[in-house]
Amino acid sequence: MASSTQTDKQEVQHNVEAGAGAESQTSAASPAKATDQVFNARIELINKIGDAALKDLLDGLQKPTTDMGPVITKRERNEILQNHSVTEDQVTCLVDMVWKKGERACERFLSLLKDKEPGVYDQQQMILKLKEWICSQYKTVQEYNSLPGQDVLLTDRYTDPLLVQQHRKQKEKEKEIRFRGASLFSAREAYQSTTVDQFFSPNDRGDITKAVILQGHSGHGKSFMAQKIMLDWASGNLYQDRFELILHLRCKELNQMSRERNDRCVVDLVSYNKTFTPLISEKLKDSPQKVLFLIDGFDELRFTNEINDSLVICQDPFTPAPVEAILSALLKGTILDDCFLLVTTRPTAADTLSKLLKHPLRSTETLGFSEKGVQEYFQRFCQDQQVAEKALRSVKATGTLFSSCSIPVICWIVCTVFREQLKENAEMAELETTTSIFVHFVSTLLEHHCQGLSQPVPTLLRSLGQLAERGMLEQQVLFEKGSVLSTVSDPASVPFLCKFLMKKKVRLEEMFSFMHLSFQEFFTALNYTSDQNDEKVNELLGSVKEYDGKSYVLPVIQFLFGLSNKEVVQNLKELPLPSTPSIRGQLEKWILELIEKSKDSKKSNELLFILHCLCELHEEEFVRRAMEVWGKITFASIPLTTTDCSVLLYCLQRCPTIRSLELNVCNITAEKLRMLQPALSRCEELGLVVEELSDADVNDLISALGEGQILSGLGVLKSSLSEESVQQVLSALSRQKSVGAVVLSVKTITITTAERLLQFYKTTQITEFVGVRLLEGADTAESLCSRVLMRREEEDFHLVIAHSGGSSPESETSGLGLDLLFPSQISDIILREILHRFHRLRRFTYNILLFDLCVDALLSWLASLPDLKGVILHVSCLTEIWATRILQLIHTCHSLKRVELHLPKGTDTAESLCSRLLMRREEEDFHLEILHFGDSSPESETSGLGLQLLFPSQISDIILREILHRFHQLRRFTDKSQEHNECVDALLSWLASLPDLKGVNLEVSCLTEIWATRILQLIHTCPSLKGVQFEAAVYDESFEKEEGLLLEEGICLLRRPDCTITLTGKRCCKATEKCTEFKDRNLSCNELWKGSSSRVYLQEPCSLVRRSLGTAALSPEPTGSFGLLAIHADLNKRPAASLIPHLPSDCCTFSSDASTVTLHPNPAFLPNVLTDFHLSQSVKLHSLPVWALSEYMRHTQPLRRSGRLFVCFDPGCLGQPL
Fold first, then answer.
1. Which end of the chain, N or C, is less packed with Cβ atoms under 10 Å?
2. NACHT domain: from which residue to which, for each copy (predicted)?
3. Residue 1147 has pLDDT above 90, yes or no
4. For the CA atoms of 1188, 1190, 1191, 1196, what is the dihedral angle to 10 degrees?
5. In DSSP terms, which residues pair with 1030 in a beta bridge?
6. What DSSP designation does 1007 have?
C-alpha cells in the first residue's frame, strides 16, 4: 500500500509538471485553449457522455503517451467510479479533475473524446464556434453618436441596473418621475431586488421558474441587458450549468418577418449564422430543457393581437407556420414546453404578456441605475479617474440632474456632455448653477440629437415650454398623445420627451412625459422668460402667498432666478431665445419681500429655498444686500446635501459679517465641514453639529471654529475621537468667548478624559453643559462608562455618568446611570472615586451577589459626601431592593434633598414595581412619588397611574415596600377590569389607615364617578389627611405629561354639600352628549380646565366663612353656578359634612345702610368644645363682603328651599341647604 501511494504521488507530480511545461509552450500559439474549450463545453459533456464512453476515456487518460505520462492515476480513477453512483456525477468529477490539471491534460481529454465519441466532440466544437460567433457579434455596441467604425466595447459601458421582483402600481411609477436627488435612490432601496442569475431559481413554492418577464421603460437598458446576457453566456460567465443554448429573438426582426407573410419554423426565427441551424435543431429536439429563448422588445411587436387571436395553431416547432402562430405557441408553451423563456417589454405591455406566458412565471423590472450604479457608470465611461470624479461631483451637487441619471440613456447623455466639457475646461467654471447645467445640457442635445426636426429650434422650445406649463398648472406629468400634438408637431423625434403605452380600459394609448419632472419645470420657466409677459410672471410669484415646501411652482421660480443670471442669458441667446431683462427686477423685489417676512421664521426649508434662489441668480451685489436682512440663520433637523452646503457657502461668503449661524443635526459630515469652513470661522455666533468625524478631521473642525466666537453649541456625533483629539477640541473651545452645550463622541472614556472635561468646565465660561459619549455600538470594555456629562444648573454642579450595558435581559447594568447634584464643583479626587466605583459595577454584570455589594458600597460612599444634594439612578428594572437602597440613602445622607429611580425609555417591563420612584425632603416633610407610565394611545387599556404621598417624617422601609407592592398589583390588570378596581380600592383603603399621612396627590387618566367616590371616601376615612389633589393626566412614550379627561359624572359627584373640589384636566364643553370615554380626550370639544389642582385644608367653620366672604366679592361662573366656591373643612375634628356652616337667613342682620352685616351662629351647630364663645360669638362684616353677601342672597332667592344661608346649585339638590 505504501508503495502504491508513493507511485500515485510521483505520477501526479509528473503530470502536473508535464502539463505546466506544455502549457507554457503551447498557450501562446493556441487560438482557443483546450482548458477554455473544456470549461465552456462542460455542461454539454456532462449531459452527452455515457457509461461506455466514460470507461473508454478513463482507460485512455490512465495510459501514458510518448510525450506525457498518465493524466489520471489509478487512485483517482477509483475515486471517480466509487464515490459517485450516477453517471452524470462521475462525468462531472472527471471533467473538473481534468480541467484543473491544465492545458495538456485538457488537450489529451479532447483528443480521446474525438476518437471515442466523435458525435459528442463535433457537437461540442460546434457549440464552441457558436459561442465564439456570439462573442464577436455582441462584444461591441454602437452609441447614439457613434460614427461608422466607432463602436465601443460593451464591457466598457455596461453597468448592472437595479432589478426588482415585485409589481409596482402605475401611481408608484408616476411618483418616480417626481422624485428628486438622492431621495429617488433612497426610495428604491425599499424594493425587493434580484439579479439576472437568480431569474430561474425556484419560487417560494419550490417550483422552477419557466418564464421570466423583464419590464422597464424606454431608455432603461432592457436591450442592453439582453445583449450582456448573451455575451456573458457565450463567455462562460452566466448560466453555464443551466443552459446549453440561448437563442436571441429580436421583436423588431419578427415584425419584418411577419410582414413578409412567409411561413417559418422556430429555427428560422433566430438570426444566427445558418451554419448553426443543424446544431440548434438538434438541441431543440434532444434537450429542450437546456435551451433558453431570450425575446427582446415584446412591446414593439406589431402583431400582438394576432398572437392572441391566431387562427392557425402551431403544434410542431419544426413545421413551417406563420410567425404569429409560432411565437404564440412558444410563449404559451404549446410547443417546446420544456424550454425556458426570458422576455423583455415595456411595463404597459407586461399585463398582455403575462396572460400569454406559460407558468411558473416570474415578473421583474429594471428601474435603471442605483446610486452606486451611477457612480460606476461614470467611472467606466470617462475611464480617466480624475475626469470621472470631477464630473460625478458636479452632477451630485445638482440633485435634480443626479436623480435623472438613474435612467441609463440620460446618464449616457450627461456623461457625454460632461466629458467633452471637462476636456475643454477642467474647472467647469461655466457650470456653477443648476440652471446653467440644464441650459448647457439642452443646447448640447439640440446640437447633436435633433437633426431633421420638422420645426425650428425656437418654435420647438416654445412648444415644449407651453406643454410643460400646462402640465405644471394642472399638476400633470403624463400627457396624452393628442394633447402633445396640439403643441409639438413631431413628439417622437424630440429627445426631451419619453413615449410609452398605457392601458386605457380595453385599449392601449400612447402617452408622453418629460424625461424627469425637473426638465418639465425647466421648460416651464423657459416659457415664462420667452413670453415677455410681466403680468404673467407677477401672477406666478403672487401665487406663493406664504412659503409652502410642497408648492409645485417653487422649482419653476428657482429656475426663473437662474435664467435671469447674466451669463445664462448670454447662453440663451445662442439657442436663440429672446430674454426679458425686466423679469430680474420683479424677482429681486419678490425675494426681498419674502426674506423680510421669513427672517424670524424657523422653517429651515423656506430658508433653504431662498438661498437656492439667490445662488441661482448668482449676482454678488444683490446677494450681499439680501443676506444683510437676516440676523440669525438657523437650520435644524434638516439634512443638508452637498448642493445645499455649496449654496449656503456661496451666500455666506457674500456677507461682510456673519452674525449668527446654527447648523443643528443637518448631516454635516467631514466633507461638508471642509466645504463650509471658510464661512463658519467668520461667524460671530455659531451652533454646530457634525457627524462621522475621524481624528484626521479634527484640524478641519478647529479651523471651522476659529477663535473668539460665541459658541452656542457643538456636537460631534457618530464619531470615535481619541483622547488627543478631545484635548485639541477642548483647547479650541477654551479660546471662544463663551460655550453653550458640548457633546463629543469618543473612542473610549478614561480617567484622563473625565479630568480634562472637569478642568475645561472649571476654566471655561459654560452656559449649559459639556460631555463625552461613546459611539453607539462601540466596544466599551476599556471605557469607565458610556457617557460623562457636566452641567451647570444655576449655582449647582450636575454630574451625569451612564453605562449603556449589555442588551441581554439578565444584564444588571443595562441602562445603568447615575446623576449627582452638588452645590459647587467637585474635586478631581471625588470625580476619580465616583468613576472607579461606578466602573466596578460593570465587572460583575452577571454576578448578582458581587454586583449588589458594589452598588451598596457606591451608595454608602455617596451618603458620606457632605454636600450631595440630589441623586438620580437609572436602572434596568425598578425592584424592591433598589427602592430600599434609595430610602436608606436619603435617610443617611443629611444633605440629600432629592433621590429618584428612573427606568430608561423602552425598559418598563412587568417585573418593575413602577416606572419612576421619587423621594424628597422639604423642611420636615417627606414626599414619596410613584408613577406608572401607561400607553397614551386612544386604544390603550392601560393608561398609567401616579401617586404622590406627603408624610410629616421619613417612612419606614416596611411601609415603602407595602406601598410599592400594592401599587405594583395595579399593573397586572387593565384599567376597567374588576381586578384593577379591587386593587385600587385596597390601596386607597390601606393608605387611609396610615396614621401620619398628610397629603395625597392622584394622577389618573380620567375622572370618573368611581374615582370621585374614592376621593370622598379617602377624605372621610383618613383623619390625619391635610390635603388632597387630583389631576387628570397620562404620560406618553416620551414620558411627557398629557392632560386627561374630567367626566361630568365625576365632577357632579364632587359637588356635594360636604365637599367641593377644583380639578385639573380636560372637560367637555358640549351642552349635551358630553364625552364619556378617555379615548375622546383629544376631540376639539374638550378644553383644558382653568382651575388649579384642588386642595382640602383644615379651617374652623366661622373663620372659614370669614375668609371666604372677606377676601373678595362673589362672582358667579359664566353658567351662573357657585358650585366651585372653595369650601374648607376641619378634617381633624369630625367628618366634613358636620363642619359646613349651616346659617339660617334670619341669622343675618344687615344695617340700615347695608354697610355691615352680622352673622349669628346656627343653634343647630354643635362644636366639639361647648363654650359660651362658640355658642354666642357673632361675626360682623364690613364694606365689600357685605355687598357680596347681599348679592349672593338676591341671586339665590328664587331657588331657595331652605332658610339657611348657603344653598346648593347642583341640579340634583338645587336650593337645598349646603
1. N
2. 210-349
3. no
4. 130
5. 1002
6. E
Q: Please, what's the b/e burial string for 794-823 (b: 16 or more CB within 10 A of its CB; e: otherwise)?
A: eeebbbbbbbbbbeeeeebbbbbbbbbbbe
Q: Is residue 687 within 8 Å of residue 663, measured between CB atoms?
A: yes
Instruction: Quote the crossing angle between the two packed helices 620-627 and 642-653, to the nearest 10°.
Output: 90
Residues 845, 805 contacting (CB under 8 angstroms)? yes
CA distance 18 to 1006: 92
Residues with Cβ within 8 Å of 540's Cβ and at least 6 positions away in sequence, in order, are 528, 553, 556, 557, 560
Pairing of strands 291-296, 479-480: unpaired
| Separation of CA 32 from chain center | 54
Contacts of the segment 771-774: beta carbons below 8 A, 24+ positions apart: 771/742, 771/743, 771/744, 771/800, 772/726, 772/743, 772/744, 772/745, 772/746, 773/743, 773/744, 773/745, 773/746, 774/745, 774/746, 774/747, 774/748, 774/749, 774/804
Chain Cα centroid distance, residue 1134: 62
The DSSP bridge partners found for residue 294 are: 248, 342
Neighbours of 293 (CB within 10 A): 23
Return the closest-CA partner of residue 125 out of 34, 19, 54, 52.
34
Measured distance CA(234)–CA(743) in Å, rounded: 59
Place of cell 460614427: 147
Strand partners, 932: 945
Length of the chain: 1218
CA dist 270 → 41, 141, 325, 844 (Å)? 22, 20, 16, 75
Q: What does the alpha-carbon distance between residue 942 and residue 1004 come to, in Å, rounded to a whole number?
A: 11
Alpha helices, H only, 357-407: 371-382, 385-396, 399-404
User: Is there a contact between 1018 and 1000 (Cβ–Cβ < 8 Å)?
Assistant: yes
The CA-based diameter of the chain, rounded to the nearest angstrom, is 150
Write out the three cell numbers for 274: 445558418
Question: What b/e string do you get for 584-622 counting C-beta neighbours within 10 Å, with b at 16 or more?
Answer: bebbbebbeebbeebeeeebbebbbbbbbbbbbbbbeeb
CB contact at 8 A, 1042 and 936: yes
Identity (one letter) of the amino acid at 619?
A: E
What does each C-alpha distance from 839 to 75, 813, 832, 858, 1097 come to in angstroms? 64, 10, 10, 10, 49
H helices of 532-618, where?
A: 534-542, 554-563, 566-573, 582-598, 604-617
Q: Which three cell numbers stand for residue 1131?
A: 378634617
Q: Which of 486, 423, 427, 492 is nearest to 453 (CA)?
A: 492
Q: What is the CA radius of gyration of the chain?
A: 43
Is residue 712 within 8 A of residue 736, CB to CB? The reply is no
**pLDDT tens-place string over residues 857-904:** 999 999 999 899 999 999 888 889 999 999 999 999 989 999 999 887
pLDDT 10s digits, 1167-1203:
544 444 444 555 666 544 666 677 677 667 766 766 6
Q: What distance in Å separates the CA atoms of residue 524 and residue 465, rounded to the nearest whole number?
A: 5
**pLDDT given at position 806:** 46
User: DSSP labels for 134-177?
Assistant: HHHHHSEE--TTPPTT--EEGGGT-----EE-S---HHHHHHHH
The CA distance from 336 to 524, in Å, is: 53
> Distance between CA 898 and CA 824 in Å, rounded?
16
Joined together, the cell numbers standing for residue 1118 give: 359664566
Angle between helices 118-138 and 277-286 (to 10 degrees): 120
Beta bridge partners of 717: 691
More confident residue, 1090 or 210: 210
Nearest to 1127 by CA among 1107, 1147, 1148, 1154: 1107
Report d(CA 112, CA 92) in Å as an integer: 17
**What pLDDT was estimated at residue 671?**
86
502-518 average pLDDT score: 73
